[in-house]
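// run 5 | inverse folding | seed 20
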């Protein structure tokens, strides 16, 4: 039995270790906040860096003001770089770089790289800030404002002759809406889009870039001819399928882990000027999915194919009348959507009103619709300019901004589902888990990988291994103060329920715009691609400087902090 003296000594030692641990954990040069489903915010603390690095990190001016840059750093007004579209994660950087040239970005990354493995600094590229879980943030690090680095395509950067050789060179910080407007002046446009065009080129190419044209052309990363990239070593590298191909395919869909995209060469095609936009409804999911898969299998089909789920929506068709015209107004007025789960097929046919015959376009559309099995009274049609069609989400954005409903939490869940499992997924998720679609759109549309460029397999994008897959996105917006079904906690719990069901049922889904908190989960996400992904990281960003917000790899300093903390916890 221990003596009273030894007991007191042990107790004092334990208290001293605990005090030391608390001091170590609380002493940090940067404070960050993470909003979660369980609490308003949680402060994240970490042990101090080595003395020499502590001095560098606590005074970023000293570390970077000596660099010869065309642009500049800002150290005070950095709060905007700690926010993103998701509005759930807030990590404040030590500095924001506003580059005026690619060499500004390269010099900054190279400087961090040369600081060595024990530096705690990281670098994140931020485009339009449309990430969902802090992926474009760098806690206590450097955020690169990519929108400072723009070069309008109108300045002589359109190239190529006839056929498929036409392309445009654009800055990684350029918005797709601006790329579209400039290329349209030349009667051309990129082939593949995202539904929302106010995103940067580098941002979508780092993820994939998916929309209703992808069934034919593949995602945006399937339509890139060349990239200019700043690697995690600060090297500026031009890469393509034939030049530095490993880096090229690494960066496409690579979540920013291997380099910052500073320029992209995008394939173009002749642009239409008008769109025939059509919506129809289904009450039977099997018919809805069968028709989608039929349409994406055709050589001559619609130019855009998407769908969405509508659950218990009152007066649905009356709402459509503001933008669409019913084929049969009498039948449409009698249709009741209340209390029903419905599936909307949304398709579009592009044409050039100066060259294409309207009657021929009508015949093509009627021929395609005649093979489908929708509810006939729900056929609605609209005719809109091509630019307006592609930029349609921005119109909704403006309305939400006016109502103060845009800058709210967006707990989105975006998935790829194997085609063979889609009926099973839909039956459970839309039959039992998701009982309301009022929080935001639920997109669902089929894609056919067999029609894509085979190089998609060499990129870092992770998708199920089946020819036909479905893109399903739950694009919810949360009311910040709500504790009900429109609140953040409820929506996050519902998302998790979807993931838990899918895991237990062996659905084999893959997340698009993925978010995981442990490296084990990331390994599961990448599956057979993990070994290659890890090798590419060690080649192009060996110190794990880039894109820390994804939390895939840790800097050596972060690993050391964790080791110190775990060691102290064991002693207590």
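// decoded
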């Amino acid at each position: 039995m221990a003596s009273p003296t030894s007991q007191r000594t042990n107790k004092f030692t334990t208290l001293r270790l605990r005090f030391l641990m608390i001091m170590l954990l609380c002493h940090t040069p940067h404070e960050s906040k993470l909003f979660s489903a369980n609490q308003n915010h949680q402060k994240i603390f970490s042990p101090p860096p080595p003395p020499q690095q502590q001095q560098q990190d606590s005074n970023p001016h000293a570390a970077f003001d000596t660099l010869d840059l065309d642009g500049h750093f800002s150290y005070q007004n950095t709060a905007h770089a700690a926010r993103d579209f998701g509005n759930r994660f807030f990590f404040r950087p030590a500095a924001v770089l506003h580059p005026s040239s690619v060499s500004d970005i390269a010099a900054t990354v190279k400087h961090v790289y040369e600081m060595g493995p024990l530096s705690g600094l990281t670098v994140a590229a931020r485009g339009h800030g449309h990430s969902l879980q802090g992926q474009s943030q760098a806690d206590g690090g450097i955020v690169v404002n990519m929108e400072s680095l723009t070069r309008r395509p109108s300045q002589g950067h359109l190239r190529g002759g006839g056929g498929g050789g036409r392309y445009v060179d654009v800055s990684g910080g350029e918005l797709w809406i601006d790329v579209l407007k400039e290329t349209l002046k030349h009667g051309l446009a990129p082939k593949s889009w995202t539904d929302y065009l106010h995103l940067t080129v580098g941002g979508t190419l780092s993820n994939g870039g998916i929309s209703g044209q992808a069934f034919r052309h593949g995602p945006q990363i399937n339509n890139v001819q060349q990239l200019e990239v700043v690697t995690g070593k600060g090297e500026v590298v031009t890469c393509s399928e034939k030049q530095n191909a490993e880096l090229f395919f690494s960066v496409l869909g690579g979540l920013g882990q291997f380099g910052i995209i500073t320029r992209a060469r995008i394939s173009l095609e002749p642009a239409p000027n008008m769109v025939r936009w059509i919506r129809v409804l289904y009450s039977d999911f099997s018919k809805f999915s069968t028709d989608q898969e039929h349409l994406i299998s055709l050589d001559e089909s619609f130019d855009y194919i998407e769908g969405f789920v509508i659950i218990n929506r009152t007066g649905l068709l009356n709402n459509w009348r503001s933008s669409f015209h019913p084929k049969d107004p009498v039948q449409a007025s009698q249709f009741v959507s209340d209390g029903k789960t419905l599936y909307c097929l949304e398709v579009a046919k592009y044409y050039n009103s100066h060259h294409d015959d309207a009657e021929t376009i009508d015949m093509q559309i009627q021929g395609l619709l005649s093979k489908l099995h929708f509810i006939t009274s729900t056929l609605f049609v609209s005719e809109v300019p091509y630019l307006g069609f592609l930029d349609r989400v921005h119109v909704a954005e403006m309305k939400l901004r006016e109502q103060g409903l845009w800058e709210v939490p967006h707990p989105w869940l975006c998935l790829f589902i194997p085609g063979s499992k889609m009926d099973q997924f839909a039956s459970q998720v839309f039959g039992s888990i998701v009982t309301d679609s009022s929080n935001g759109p639920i997109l669902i549309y089929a894609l056919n990988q067999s029609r894509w460029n085979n190089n998609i397999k060499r990129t870092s994008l992770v998708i199920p291994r089946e020819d036909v897959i479905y893109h399903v996105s739950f694009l919810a917006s949360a009311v910040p103060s709500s504790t009900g079904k429109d609140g953040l906690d409820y929506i996050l719990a519902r998302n998790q329920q979807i993931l838990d069901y899918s895991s237990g049922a062996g659905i084999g889904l893959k997340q698009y715009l993925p978010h995981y908190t442990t490296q084990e989960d990331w390994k599961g996400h990448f599956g057979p691609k993990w070994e290659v992904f890890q090798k590419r990281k060690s080649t192009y960003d060996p110190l794990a400087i880039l894109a820390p917000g994804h939390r895939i790899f840790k800097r050596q300093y972060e690993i050391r902090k964790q080791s110190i903390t775990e060691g102290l916890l064991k002693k207590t």
